[in-house]
């Protein structure tokens, strides 16, 4: 369970760093006029179909507490955020979501959901994907070391 919490904290740190990078680079490096593409999906793995509404998503498929959401283009170099939330405004069990690139499908994001105490749980979520037209040869990547060694 500590590894899940550590992973969640690391994911939040990376998301914050990605947001800071996007804001800093778009204003100071001359990227202000670059095109940004935003995609999103609202998914409830407990319902059929699980994808309740979307922009640019093709389908969502759940396997246990992890859901793969496939989009209409390669999003492997984009930024992803997900949060637990109801598709239709109803109360939802408190929890959190983690996101990762699909290791086998460059157009998919995998979202795992957890209860508030860190146990895997099947929860609805909202996923946001932001892609921007960037010259990747000028981007510096920072890959943090694993805090557990």
Question: What's this model, at a glance?
Answer:
The protein is an alpha+beta fold and 149 residues long. It is 18% helix and 37% strand.
What percentage of the residues does DSSP assign to strands (E)?
A: 35-45%
Radius of gyration: 16 Å
Please state the average pLDDT score: 79
Q: How many strands, which pairing sense, and closed or not: the largest β-sheet? A: 4 strands, antiparallel
Percent helix, as a range, is 10-25%
Secondary structure tally: strands: 8
Overall spatial form:
globular
Spatial ordering of strands, largest sheet: 2-1-8-5
Characterization of the model:
It is a single chain. This protein has one helix at 2-28, and strands spanning 36-43, 51-55, 57-63, 66-71, 79-84, 95-101, 108-115, 125-132. It is globular and about 45 Å long. By secondary structure, the protein is α+β, with helices and mostly antiparallel strands. It is built from 1 helix and 8 strands. The strands form 2 sheets. A 4-stranded antiparallel beta sheet has the order 2-1-8-5, with no helix packed on it. The chain has a domain at 34-134. Mean pLDDT is 79; it is low at 5-33.
């Amino acid at each position: 369970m500590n590894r899940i919490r550590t992973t969640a904290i690391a994911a939040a740190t990376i998301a914050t760093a990605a947001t800071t990078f996007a804001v800093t680079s778009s204003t100071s490096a001359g990227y202000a006029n670059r095109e940004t593409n935003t995609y999103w999906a609202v998914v409830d793995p407990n319902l059929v179909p699980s994808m309740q509404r979307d922009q640019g998503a093709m389908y969502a498929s759940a396997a246990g507490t992890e859901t793969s959401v496939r989009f209409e283009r390669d999003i492997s170099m984009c930024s992803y955020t997900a949060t637990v939330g109801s598709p239709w405004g109803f109360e939802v069990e408190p929890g959190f979501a983690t996101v990762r690139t699909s290791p086998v499908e460059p157009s998919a994001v995998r979202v795992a959901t957890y209860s508030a105490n860190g146990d895997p749980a099947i929860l609805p979520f909202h996923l946001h994907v932001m892609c921007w037209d960037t010259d990747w040869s000028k981007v510096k990547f920072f890959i943090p070391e694993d805090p557990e060694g």
